[in-house]
Amino acid sequence: MKKIFFKTLVITLVISAILGISIILLDMWNEVTLKVLESTATIFCFSIPGLCASTIYEKQKYKKVSLLGISSCLLSTLYCLLLIWEIIPSNGEYDIIYKLLLTFLLLSFSLGHICLLLLVTSDEKKVLYYRNATIILSTIMDALLLIILYFEVEVNWKIIAILAILIALGTIVTPILNKLYKKNTKLYNKVKKIYIAHSKGIDYVNELYKPLKGADFLKEYELILPHEKSKNSSNTRDFYKDIDILIAEVSKPATGLGIELGWAFDDNTKIYCIHKEKIIISNSIKAITENIYEYKDTENMLNIIKSIIN
After folding, report:
1. What is the pTM of this model?
2. 138 exposure class (CB count in 10 Å sphere: 0-12, 13-18, 19+)
3. Total structural domains in the chain?
4. Containing structural domain, residue 161
5. Where residue 251 sits, what CATH number does that domain have?
6. Nearest-10 Cα torsion for 193, 196, 197, 200
7. Which residues are CB-neighbours of 74 under 8 A, at least 6 positions away?
8. Is 44 exposed, middle or buried (0-12, 13-18, 19+ CB in 10 A)?
9. Considering only CA atoms, which of 196, 161, 165, 182 is closest in space to residue 272?
10. 132 shares a domain with 27
11. To 10 degrees, what angle do helices 157-182 and 94-118 make?
């Protein structure tokens, strides 16, 4: 879905840009061309929060939030285009029309902002505290603005101003703190050993080992493939203390895989899980890591792993 969204967005933006530039260069000024320019501006405007919302689509834990953000942007764009081309009759009800317009704008950009914040993942409680506090404050301000808009309730402007300042502060401070704390982790300094965990019930040779061994970006790392030489794993309990990253292919459940994940979790090893599309992940996996990614094909899988280690 993410690829379809991006392709559709790129095509739409290119067509809109061509139309807009043509109108300006050829001086084609009339009522219709003005509406075309307004439509172009609308598409560009809502593409920004739409792109922000799409950034966390591959994270299983936040997929619903991403879909909500993308859907909000699409509906907002559609609503604005219907207004521009006068397909929605006003019938003198300008008040409700513009209230809905402001609601769509608020929700689209707010969800895009929240999705960007959810990109920040960390084992440090301070980082997560600032991130979650910022999201909560943003939600509170959105609720207040909607109450003011629809119920015309008077809210002290100082409250809104303070909330806006705190949200801006949290938005800036959260990624900075995340980067500062990452400098103290072995993952940030240098990833050396990458362990690939998986079930023996999949075709791991063709689906995992061959693509991974052929990936240029993995050449500088020590890639550990548990069943490369033997179908039986000889890993001891202490083995997982010495690896930098464990990347687990969890499309197919397996007892041995579950034990490995449990041991790695106990040793505070950084765990990332990947799985094929349309696979339902168990709650036990979600309990040990929030770094869960869905992939469509081999190329997509390699891109995800590349983003993980970089």
Report:
1. 0.67
2. buried
3. 3
4. 120-184
5. 3.40.50.450
6. -140
7. 46, 50
8. middle
9. 196
10. no
11. 20
What's the burial of 47, exposed, middle or buried (CB within 10 Å: 0-12/13-18/19+)? middle
Same domain for 170 and 201: no
183 burial level (CB within 10 Å; 0-12, 13-18, 19+): exposed
Domain boundary at 74, 102, 130, which? 102
DSSP letter (8 states) at residue 260: H
139 and 26 inside one domain: no
122, 123, 128, 130 alpha-carbon torsion, rounded to 10°: -80
Write down the residue that tokens 């869905």 correspond to: 294
In a domain, 113, yes or no: no
Q: Are residues 239 and 302 in the same domain?
A: yes
How confident is the model over 216-245, as pLDDT tens digits?
Answer: 999 889 999 999 888 777 788 888 988 989
* DSSP secondary structure of 158-171: HHHHHHHHHHHHHH
Return d(Cα 202, Cα 200) in angstroms, integer.
6
Residues in the chain, overall count: 310
Q: What is the CA radius of gyration of the chain?
A: 24
Whether 198 shows a pLDDT value over 90: the answer reads yes
pLDDT tens-digit readout, 255-273: 999 999 999 999 989 999 9
Together in a domain, 229 and 165: no
Residue 135 vs residues 46, 131, 179: alpha-carbon distances, Å: 20, 6, 19
